[in-house]
Amino acid sequence: MSIARFSPFELLLLKSRSQVDTATLLLLAWVLVHRQHVSEGQRRRRLAQVTAQFRHGHELGPVMSIAHSQDLQAIQLAAEVLRKECAKERNLSVIHQAIAVATDDGALSLANHYILRFLADLLSIPPVTLNTLFHELTGTPLGAPDDPSRDAYWQIHDPDYHARKARDAEAAKQQHQQAQAQAEQRQRQKDERQQYKQQKQQEKQQEKQQRQEQASQAREREQQRQRERAHQQDQQRQKQHQEKQQREQAKREQQRSQQDSYQRNSDQNSNQNSRQQEHRQKERGNQQRTSPPPDRTTRALSVLGLTPGASRIEVRHAYRRMAQLHHPDRFYSESEHQVALASARFQRIKNAYDYLMQTY
Amino acid sequence: MRDLYQRLAVSPEADDQEIKRAVANCQHSALRQDAEAVFTIAERRDVYDTLHDTVSDIGRLRARLGLSHGPHWQGDVANDFSLPPDHAISRHDELVDRVSHAVSLYNRWRRLRAPWLLITMLVAGVGIGLALGLTLCLGLLPM
């Protein structure tokens, strides 16, 4: 026994003279709520205008307020009523009204793209019919909706932002240039100072050289006398020096041979180390690859209509059921378009199944 | 339309810091660029969130009505917003159940109203008689 009271829409549905009309009314109001750049009064008037033929016999106000509150349960109830009780001849007129309400002299909003397609699926209207109907009513073909989850969408739809960004970038550039100019000025000043210092130093050096030259001339005379004495001693020293050099050369050759052997050893060690590091890196890469992103698994499961945590056998059963339902050969008798759509669906299901079988 | 929250593995209610971290950790460069374009500016995120709510509502509706493989539900939207069918019973059946329950209660009340009226009349008469007797007793004693 449920304690919950009847919701406003349920009461409305019970009081209504025609449940289908009330359900259609709510769905049209839902479409209208998602239209942009329209005031509340305009919405209500438009709804009254479209549904003048309806036999519901209650006020439009509560319907609009339910649609505004985005009550998912009420919308689900309306969709169920519409699917159960709407005659096949009326399906087209309902979708006709929905398109008219969604687009009169305005572009279709993004949300309404999806809502219209939901209604078309609900009323089992194939895409071809929807496209032709849309084209007849608005004069423009029904294109794929824009995708605000991509960067390209915002580059088109938010040009102010990019103008702002360009301006910021220019300002930053100018600042950078100014800073550079200032730095150059400082460097020039520094250079000038350095040149001045260098000139001074050169002058000092020249003075020093003059003094040194005078002194050296005096020294040379004394040195000539000393050389004559020293010449005899030098001959003896040279003999001793040659013997020393021979000994040193022998020592150096020994040291070289030792160093070479040491270097070879160290090279081998370093090679081994680098190989070990590469091996570790490869292992890490493998570990990253083997752990798949968790959201892909849940997505694949939901494509098969399963909740996370389903077993392998359940996955296989779900795949068989889905494959039988959506196999393109089932739609062979209907139309080429149906077959193409079914094969796209089948491909999606098969991809999900293959993925799950590999990783699960 | 893709579900960026799902692809970044963040909840839609996450605050800016968490989302910034998730975007920075994202390995896919194109996805990271798109996520930066959407999430770094508050207005864009608002626009995206309203559409995200609507589309996920539609995904839920489709799952409940068994329309998650319809010909109009294809591509990225179908991949990201398809939900497994939750086992909520049909709202229409539930409404019918509740109405029939209310009707049976009403009918029972109608049917039981006559005997209950008799019983209440009897109880009221007995009560009045007792009260009268008591007053008489109280009035007679001092006399």
From TrEMBL, chain A:
<keyword id="KW-0143">Chaperone</keyword>
<feature type="compositionally biased region" description="Basic and acidic residues">
    <location>
        <begin position="164"/>
        <end position="173"/>
    </location>
</feature>
<feature type="region of interest" description="Disordered">
    <location>
        <begin position="164"/>
        <end position="300"/>
    </location>
</feature>
<protein>
    <recommendedName>
        <fullName>J domain-containing protein</fullName>
    </recommendedName>
</protein>
<feature type="compositionally biased region" description="Basic and acidic residues">
    <location>
        <begin position="218"/>
        <end position="255"/>
    </location>
</feature>
<feature type="compositionally biased region" description="Low complexity">
    <location>
        <begin position="256"/>
        <end position="275"/>
    </location>
</feature>
<feature type="domain" description="J">
    <location>
        <begin position="299"/>
        <end position="360"/>
    </location>
</feature>
<feature type="compositionally biased region" description="Basic and acidic residues">
    <location>
        <begin position="185"/>
        <end position="211"/>
    </location>
</feature>
<feature type="compositionally biased region" description="Low complexity">
    <location>
        <begin position="174"/>
        <end position="184"/>
    </location>
</feature>
<dbReference type="InterPro" id="IPR001623">
    <property type="entry name" value="DnaJ_domain"/>
</dbReference>
<feature type="compositionally biased region" description="Basic and acidic residues">
    <location>
        <begin position="276"/>
        <end position="286"/>
    </location>
</feature>
<dbReference type="InterPro" id="IPR036869">
    <property type="entry name" value="J_dom_sf"/>
</dbReference>
<dbReference type="Pfam" id="PF00226">
    <property type="entry name" value="DnaJ"/>
</dbReference>
Automatic annotation (TrEMBL), chain B:
<keyword id="KW-1133">Transmembrane helix</keyword>
<protein>
    <submittedName>
        <fullName>Uncharacterized protein</fullName>
    </submittedName>
</protein>
<feature type="transmembrane region" description="Helical">
    <location>
        <begin position="116"/>
        <end position="141"/>
    </location>
</feature>
<keyword id="KW-0472">Membrane</keyword>
<keyword id="KW-0812">Transmembrane</keyword>
